[in-house]
Amino acid sequence: MDQLLAARARGSYFGPVKDGRSLPRDPFDPDAPPLSADIPMVFDDVALCAQMTGNPPEAQHVADQMSEALLAFARTGNPNTKAIPRWPAFSLAERPTMAFNVAAKIENDPRSDERRMFEKVPYVQPGT
User: Fold this and answer.
1) 3, 25, 32, 67: which one has the fewest Cβ atoms less than 10 Å from its Cβ?
2) Is 113 a domain residue?
3) Count of domains forming the chain
4) Is residue 127 in a domain?
C-alpha cells in the first residue's frame, strides 16, 4: 500500500501518438495514425514494423522520443528526458497530455468535448 501511495504522490502521465503525419493513415480517420501505431514507437521497433510505420526518418525520431520517455518512466517514475518537452504530472485541473509527434508538445485536456460527453453517461459495473 505504501508503494501505491508513493506512486500516486509522484503523479501519473498520459500521452497518445498524436497527428503522426509521416505514418500510414487510418482508413477510418485520415487525420489520425492507425490504431496501435504507438507500439513500434514505444518499443523502438520502427524498422521491424515498417508495414505499420512506413519507416520514414520522422517515425524513428518519434520512436526515440517515446522509447526514451518509457525507459525514464520505468527507471524513475518520471518520463521526462531531453528528447521531449517538460511533461508535468497529470492533474484533473489541467489534464496535461504529451502529444507525440516529430515536435512533441503538451496539450491540456485534448479531446475535452468527448470526455465531457461521456461524463454524462452513467457507468454500471458489469455484474451489479
Assistant:
1) 3
2) yes
3) 1
4) no
Cell numbers found for residue 16: 497518445
Please give the torsion angle defined by the CA atoms of residues 80, 21, 92 and 73, in that order, rounded to the nearest 10 degrees. -30
Cα distance between residue 26 and residue 12, in whole Å: 28
The whole-model pTM stands at: 0.69
pLDDT digits (tens, 9 = 90+) for 97-113: 998 888 899 999 988 99
Report in angstroms the alpha-carbon separations of 35 from 7, 16, 52. Answer: 29, 11, 10
Can you give the residue range of the structural domain that contains 102? 10-119
Residue 111 placed within a domain: yes
What's the burial of 7, exposed, middle or buried (CB within 10 Å: 0-12/13-18/19+)? exposed
Residues in the chain where the model's pLDDT stays below 50 = 1-9, 19-22
Q: Is residue 2 part of a domain?
A: no
